[in-house]
């Protein structure tokens, strides 16, 4: 990794130097945006806010993206896979669908999806829908088309708050991200996730790592995680 590359002057990091491309529309008609590197092929596809109640994933990726020089960008970046939910603070999209249970996998299930309302000790009591059918949601339809078009060598999808690098294929990149961040390297999150994006990617032969942020403040996590995110953005690892 070349950590000697210059960063953008801090005074300029308030805004984006790159203009994102629209790759689809959400349920509410919101533009689904991807930042693309100037040169091709791309290294990684980095995704934040597939769940709208995980805004720290967007902040982490956004601040890192605004810290590098535009010409250094080697990966594609989606700051909000689920922008309507991010704007409203909900986990699911405007149809009440958990987008991470809506992919056309062998194990997709029409059963409701439950998650915790508050702490990890709470029962999984809040119900969302997995969608009326696999890939029923426009945000996921657009994402699948984007993945097929870009064919990244790895997808890194950011979630919270399990604090781990979920790398079912046990890849060198997953181990390196774990080493760089101190987050444990795990092979699964310990519960069934029918219709998940990760399972879909696995069935497609598309490498994918889930990068789970933890419980600390976003400021503390930025300090610890940003070097790894900068390296992913610049394709240095
Ligand atoms: Zn999530």
From TrEMBL:
<comment type="similarity">
    <text>Belongs to the peptidase M14 family.</text>
</comment>
<feature type="domain" description="Peptidase M14">
    <location>
        <begin position="1"/>
        <end position="236"/>
    </location>
</feature>
<feature type="active site" description="Proton donor/acceptor">
    <location>
        <position position="212"/>
    </location>
</feature>
<dbReference type="GO" id="GO:0006508">
    <property type="term" value="P:proteolysis"/>
</dbReference>
<protein>
    <submittedName>
        <fullName>Protein MpaA</fullName>
    </submittedName>
</protein>
<dbReference type="InterPro" id="IPR000834">
    <property type="entry name" value="Peptidase_M14"/>
</dbReference>
<feature type="region of interest" description="Disordered">
    <location>
        <begin position="110"/>
        <end position="134"/>
    </location>
</feature>
<dbReference type="GO" id="GO:0008270">
    <property type="term" value="F:zinc ion binding"/>
</dbReference>
<dbReference type="Pfam" id="PF00246">
    <property type="entry name" value="Peptidase_M14"/>
</dbReference>
<dbReference type="GO" id="GO:0004181">
    <property type="term" value="F:metallocarboxypeptidase activity"/>
</dbReference>
